[in-house]
Design goal:
Length: 179
Amino acid sequence: MSPSPSVAPASAFAGAPPTQRDLLDFVRRTAEDRALIDSLPLDPEGRTWVRLEGPGGSEAWLIGWPPGTGTGWHDHAESVGAFHTASGTLKENALAARLPADGWKTLELAEGVDRERTLTAGQDRSFGRHHVHEVLNESTTEHAISVHAYYPPLPQIRRYSRTGAVLRLETVERPEDWQ
């Protein structure tokens, strides 16, 4: 059985889907639950995760990041999202450009689209649809733990490779690939 933090009652959303702000509030509140954060099993070599009950039908995850691990470049398709660093430090590299949703395999990125954020324990961010990024734990000694939420529940994750200014779509994963 997965741990489930307390969430706002469904009536709080009155049928409206959760917003980026709702997701951000959720990941912040969840990260304050030290018993939940401390319950995540940590693996010294690979990321670990537990699915959580997110607000308003959203998809939520508690993720452990061993030193030196990351996601690789990806997006969350049509979902908006938020994440909060509960412990450790995470780095996010992102593109400040809206990419076409479909119909391409390789893109050359314009100069100036790269963004970098360092999110230490207690820091977070939200993002919109088609947000292309990678998240990394660059520490050589310390695990990081974060809470993530997405709405609508992830229909797919598109994974990319990047060489310089060239971004290449490599694979498309569906929920059955990671659940």
